[in-house]
Amino acid sequence: MTLKSKIISTTRIIVVLTLGLFSTAVLHAESLRIGHVSSARVMREAVPAKEADAKIKKEFSKREKELMAMSKKLKDKAAKFEKDAPVLTDSDRTKRQKELVEMDQALQQKHKAFRQDLAQRRNEEGAAFGKQLQAAIKKIALAEKLDIIVQDALYYDPKIDVTNKVLEELNN
To answer: Is 3.30.300.30 the CATH number for 3-171?
Structure first.
């Protein structure tokens, strides 16, 4: 699950809970002050989110290059085997096929470990950014004396949008 999809799924849960609170609050409040935040825009424009992505890319670029080199080496060996196969003895052919299978299995294991490690780091960075985002939203809500801030509503009046303020808070 990517950082963006994790934040979006968390946002959806928040929206559902907020709507439930909103319906109760409407019954009990004369004037309700509401704000809106676009989490997609925050993910695109917030410096901490960009820094987290860059940090992860830098952290995993070496391993990604190694995997690409291993993949190329395997393809080259497979092509050479296909070319040489007609003139190889049965024992040499079997030996080279076994080497190719072992190389492929090792590559698949490294790819799987890479994907798992990458997903774990994205989740860690996503959780850290999520805490920053929550703190920024809470700070804006308190400063603006808002009762509710909704993320990613299907419709909202632009005058209640506090995304710029949240971005300012995150980027400072």
So the answer is: no
